[in-house]
Every structure is written in C-alpha cells, then in structure tokens.
Design brief:
The protein has helices at residues 2-31, 48-64, 80-92, 108-113, 142-159, 166-174, 198-202, 221-229, 244-253, 255-271, 277-295, 302-319, 326-341, 356-383, 390-393, 413-417; strands at 35-42, 68-75, 96-106, 118-121, 126-128, 180-182, 185-188, 195-197, 204-205, 210-211, 216-217, 234-238, 423-426, 433-438, 441-447, 457-463, 468-472. With 474 residues, the protein is an alpha/beta fold. It is elongated, with a radius of gyration of 34 Å.
C-alpha cells in the first residue's frame, strides 16, 4: 500500500513538472520580443550617396542590436566600385540581410542583391541585365569585360556558397557567353543576358526542388515581414534619407583641399591676437570635413572630439606653457590622427585594421592637406608681404622707433645674448608670440606666461632658438 502511494505521488509530480515546463516554454514564447527590422531605401542609381545611406544604416542597425536589415530596392544600376563597397558593407553586418526588389534591381542592383541572405520580389519585379559597361553606357573592350566578369563571378560565388543556383543565375545576368543550364533545362542560352521576372525568379528546379533565386513574392514590404515573422511579431525602423548624403559626396571629393585650408586658417589664427575670422573659417572648413565623413557612414563623432582635444593642447602650448613642446606635439599628433580616423570605415564594436590597405587613402589625404596648408602659408608669405592678412600676423613697423627686421641673423647671437635682463616694449600683442623692440631694434619674442598687450613693458629673460623669451614688467 505504501509503495502504491509513492508511485501515485511520483506520477503526479512528474505530470505536474511536465505541465509546468510546457507552460514555461509557452510563456517564454509569448513574451519573446518582436523581431526588429531596419528598412533602408535604395531608390536611386548606385553611386556614393547610396553607399553612404546603406553603410550608415547598417552600422546604426548593428549598434542598436537590430537583427534584420531589409533593403527596399528600385535601381537601374550604377557604379561598379560603389557596388563592391556596398557588397562589402552587407557582408560586415552581423545580422540577416534581405533585399526586396520593388520593382527593379537592374545591373549593379542585381549584383548587390546577390550579397543578401534572401531576395524577395514585389509583383511585377524584375532583376538582371548586369553586364559591365562604361560610365557612359557604351560597350567596353572584350578583354576588359572578361576580366571584370571573371572577378565579379568570383565575388558573387564567395557570397553565395550553399545557395543552389544564385551564383550561376547572376553570372548569366553578367556574361552573355555563359550558358546557364540546370540538368537538361537551358535557363539562358549563350548570346544573351539573363533577366528574370518575379515569377521566373521563383521557378523551382532540380531535386529537391529549389527556386532559382527568389525567396518569395510579396505584395508589400509589410506583407513580406508578416509572412516571415508573423502578424504583429516585428517592428520596423525606417532610415530617413536626407540631403546630407549628396553633400557628403561633394565634400569628400575635395576633402584634402578643405582640410588643408582649414589647417592653414587655424595656424594663422594661432599667430594672430584674439579669435576672429581665421579661427571661425578654419573651424567651419574642418567641421565640413568631419560632417562629410560622418554622413558617408565612416567614423562617428569621436574623431571630431579628439581633434578638438588636440587643438586645445596646441593652444595650451602656445598661450600657457610656450617652449615646452610636449603639449604642442601631443596636440598636433591628436589633430592629424583624428583626421585620419575620420576617414576609416569603423564598425560598432570593431577595431579597424591598421594595415596598409586601410590606412593608405586616409594618410594620403592628410598628407595632401598638409602640403596644401604649407603651400598656402608659403604663398601668403611670398606674394602678400604687405597684404591685410600678413598685417595681422606681423606688424610692419615699431610705434616709437625705426623698423628693424624680425628675428636676427646667426652672427648676431652675441648681441641677442646681451639682451638678457634688458627691458623693451611689445610692438605687437604677445599671445604668446609676437615682436618686441629693445633699444630701437625689433626681435621675435614669446611671453613666458600669459599674454602681453601692445605697448606693455617687458624684460628679456632668455634666448630661444627662434625668439627671445620675455616677461611682463610689473
């Protein structure tokens, strides 16, 4: 009897445990979060602005933990280089990628679609005709076309391992000489390019039956997501496309020039008293560069913050602790490093590769910017010796004495050493660099601490390589 009760109780406990586990599993499924989907529109020819939109949207989705990116595509095709960059960006995204052909994915659009995990179609959608042509639409030389087709076919195969027919279908869209055959069925004969309607893309071949490239035809984008995830089991965030991508494309084409002019303006501002036109102009030019790179989906705001920190260190070197060089060198390094950083393709949670391929173009652009800044400074000094710009950098005459040359020749080193301990007058504002006059002769000077106004009395306390160090006489 006692053993019977033990068996009954054990059975009840087992049954209760099974019911509890089933309820827990059902409850877990009921409280599972809806799938998060980010929709990125591609409604223009494939060009840098489209790349910027896609890259920015993919990075935002990855940073936000979105699991699915859906590209709402209608494009007649476009630039091959941009196409390859878009394919690389799709490959970097850690979640699922879907292309909704709504209503056309022609040429470059077809190649980009092949890099997605799934391809869906709107009714009446068309994909294909992806042969390489010149920028003006003309045919290209046979050998070059063979090279391009060979390379693109390999890229498409690398993205479509395990997908039964997609790589061959896309090759048939690119290469008229390729016969696309599945078993005894010739899908596309030699001498023409493959283009597919939504129905043709969904046609099944082989054993087991597998569609050519389509995952399905859906009336709307919302219908697609409802079929895939279930009714009310998904949330959509749509990436808004603005004028910024077009502007970023224009800015990035001339980024080295803007950087060079911005750095030149910043240098002139540091060499003139106060904060005025050159500081504002330099800041605006460099802000345009950082904005262009951000809108292009490259680095975030961090690079701009590092640049500002570097500029602050340079200002500390010039205005507070002149001559130490440490803060100035650190600041200049941060400023140049921030400019390089702003051009790197940085993904959330990823450290960019510091190899030659990654760094070459950003470093080259910064080097060109420095060359432009140096050339601009040399031109100002050479061709505008008495112009209104240089009159703000170095005053041409002393207020109470004959004009002398700024600085001194090497043979006057002894004379300059004799200035130590003597007093003079500031003939320009020292902020901290400028000019002083001692016994009727003018010398380049730096103030040891703070700044000195025009006409103030100063005392020479040290000789430096390019100036004398002075201190305000109380």
């Amino acid at each position: 009897m006692f053993r019977k009760w033990i068996l009954v109780v054990s059975g009840l406990l087992f049954l209760g445990g099974a019911v509890w586990l089933d309820a827990a599993a059902g409850g877990a499924s009921e409280v599972a979060e809806p799938a998060r989907v980010k929709v990125i529109p591609v409604r223009e020819p494939i060009a840098p602005p489209v790349l910027y939109v896609l890259r920015r949207g993919l990075k935002e989705a990855q940073a936000e933990g979105v699991g699915t990116v859906l590209i709402d595509m209608e494009t007649p095709g476009g630039d091959l280089g941009t196409t390859l960059e878009i394919m690389a960006a799709l490959d970097k995204f850690e979640g699922e990628t879907i292309v909704y052909v709504n209503k056309e994915a022609i040429s470059a659009g077809a190649i980009i679609s092949s890099a997605a995990d799934e391809i869906y179609f709107a009714p009446g959608g068309v994909i294909g005709a992806a042969a390489a042509v010149s920028g003006g639409g003309e045919d290209i030389a046979a050998t070059m076309k063979q090279k391009i087709n060979s390379y693109l076919s390999a890229k498409v195969r690398s993205f479509n391992a395990g997908k039964a027919y997609r790589a061959d279908a896309v090759r048939a869209m690119m290469d008229a000489d390729f016969e696309f055959k599945i078993g005894d069925v010739v899908v596309k004969p030699k001498g023409e390019l493959l283009s597919l309607t939504a129905d043709e893309a969904a046609k099944v071949y082989g054993d087991p039956p597998t569609s050519l490239i389509s995952a399905g035809t859906r009336d709307t984008l919302e219908h697609l997501l409802e079929k895939k995830f279930g009714r009310d089991r998904y949330t959509i965030t749509r990436l808004e496309v603005s004028w910024s991508e077009e502007m970023a494309s224009a800015i990035n084409r001339i980024a080295p020039v803007l950087m060079g002019l911005g750095l030149l303006c910043v240098f002139i501002e540091f060499k003139t008293p106060g904060f005025g036109f050159f500081g504002i102009a330099g800041g605006l030019l460099l802000a345009m560069v950082f904005f262009g790179h951000y809108a292009a989906g490259l680095s975030g705001h961090e690079a701009a913050l590092v640049f500002v920190l570097g500029a602050a260190l340079v200002a500390v070197e010039i205005f507070l602790i002149p001559g130490t060089m440490l803060a100035g060198l650190a600041g200049a390094t941060l400023m140049l490093g921030a400019l390089v950083w702003s051009m790197l393709d940085v993904w959330p949670g990823e450290v960019p590769a510091m190899d030659a391929g990654t760094l070459f173009q950003p470093v080259l652009n910064v080097a060109l910017a420095l060359a432009i800044a140096l050339a601009g400074g040399a031109a100002l000094w050479r061709f505008l010796p008495k112009g209104w710009i240089l009159s703000r950098i170095a005053v041409g005459g002393a207020p109470d004495g004959p004009a002398q040359s700024a600085g001194a020749a090497p043979e006057r080193a002894g004379e300059i050493m004799s200035l130590i301990g003597r007093e003079g007058v500031a003939v320009t504002a020292l902020t901290p660099s400028g000019q002083v006059e001692v016994d009727g002769a003018r010398y380049e000077a730096q103030v040891a601490v703070g700044a000195v106004e025009v006409g103030a009395r100063v005392r020479v306390i040290e000789r430096k390589a390019f100036a004398v160090l002075v201190r305000l006489v109380e």
